[in-house]
Amino acid sequence: MESLHRVETLLSGLHYHPRTNASRNRVPRSVKILNTANHVNSRKCQCFDLYDQLVPYKKAWTWQKSLVEEKKILLDRNQDCPDTLILLQHSPVYTMGTGSSEEYLNFNIKDAPFDVYRTERGGEVTYHGPGQLVMYPIINLRNHEMDLHWYLRTLEEVVIRVLSSAFSITASRLDGLTGVWVGNQKVAAIGIRVSKWITYHGLALNVTTDLAPFNSIVPCGIRDRQVGSIKGLLGDGEEQGMVGDLRLMDVAHESLLKEFSEVFQLQIEKQTVSDLNILKAESFKFTRTLYTSIFRSFKKRHEHAFVPSLCVKEIKVATSVSPIMVNSFLIK
């Protein structure tokens, strides 16, 4: 657990939320992540925070486009157009940009391992899946900088700050390539679309992502470089298990919101999700497989002094499940 302890030590400036039920009600109140004393004129940003849910790509894509159309109507009426941020994970899927080439697919598109969507964003093919935090800023660049290069570099800056402040990982940009890199590994991909200066699509940060599906494509059309994840860069020892994955996701999520707020000088206000179709996203369910992973990890680390009650406590902290459920599992 050494690397995990290092992450938590580096997290002194962030507020860590214990994991709660994934079906909990979203917080409707304002979450003032930005220090407004330093940014007196900061604008508000509506945030739909579904970071612990798997949202099917097509639903999220349709949602983004509807928000863009709503904002364009407001602009046409000379009304205020608030910024919006969506944060989530996707079920496994491949997405292609508007000009993507199928030569970067290492499979027959008619017999793809996962769904494939050709979208209107820029860039080549990429993969989205569990363990990857996806951020979709739908913002009015008229209120920021009407410069697409500035916007891309600013999204990169958000991720670079997250990796540095929360994980002590030094990341950088590479000349001529969009995204965030640690050495030869790309840890965050960026692909955007802008319509009447309203942005959509966004960035994807690999936190605990299974990188195997990337082997079926040439990620972003770049053949001579690799894809990496935060977990891989920290060292994904067996002892971390599922508990470590959940903590890494929580830490990355908190830091991503904080740095986005600071870099774009926006005050984050969390919103409820009223669209029932979006609310049908696949919540993470803590199954017997998860309990087994935590149990084995705990037993390995405490093999000389194994105390079942302490293992129960660790599972409850990681999953917020009923003590009765955990105890019944251990009895089995």
UniProtKB/TrEMBL annotation:
<dbReference type="InterPro" id="IPR000544">
    <property type="entry name" value="Octanoyltransferase"/>
</dbReference>
<dbReference type="InterPro" id="IPR020605">
    <property type="entry name" value="Octanoyltransferase_CS"/>
</dbReference>
<dbReference type="GO" id="GO:0009507">
    <property type="term" value="C:chloroplast"/>
</dbReference>
<keyword id="KW-0012">Acyltransferase</keyword>
<dbReference type="GO" id="GO:0033819">
    <property type="term" value="F:lipoyl(octanoyl) transferase activity"/>
</dbReference>
<dbReference type="InterPro" id="IPR004143">
    <property type="entry name" value="BPL_LPL_catalytic"/>
</dbReference>
<keyword id="KW-0809">Transit peptide</keyword>
<dbReference type="Pfam" id="PF21948">
    <property type="entry name" value="LplA-B_cat"/>
</dbReference>
<keyword id="KW-0934">Plastid</keyword>
<dbReference type="GO" id="GO:0009249">
    <property type="term" value="P:protein lipoylation"/>
</dbReference>
<comment type="pathway">
    <text>Protein modification; protein lipoylation via endogenous pathway; protein N(6)-(lipoyl)lysine from octanoyl-[acyl-carrier-protein]: step 1/2.</text>
</comment>
<comment type="similarity">
    <text>Belongs to the LipB family.</text>
</comment>
<keyword id="KW-0150">Chloroplast</keyword>
<dbReference type="InterPro" id="IPR045864">
    <property type="entry name" value="aa-tRNA-synth_II/BPL/LPL"/>
</dbReference>
<feature type="domain" description="BPL/LPL catalytic">
    <location>
        <begin position="79"/>
        <end position="268"/>
    </location>
</feature>
<protein>
    <recommendedName>
        <fullName>lipoyl(octanoyl) transferase</fullName>
        <ecNumber>2.3.1.181</ecNumber>
    </recommendedName>
</protein>
<keyword id="KW-0808">Transferase</keyword>
<dbReference type="GO" id="GO:0005739">
    <property type="term" value="C:mitochondrion"/>
</dbReference>
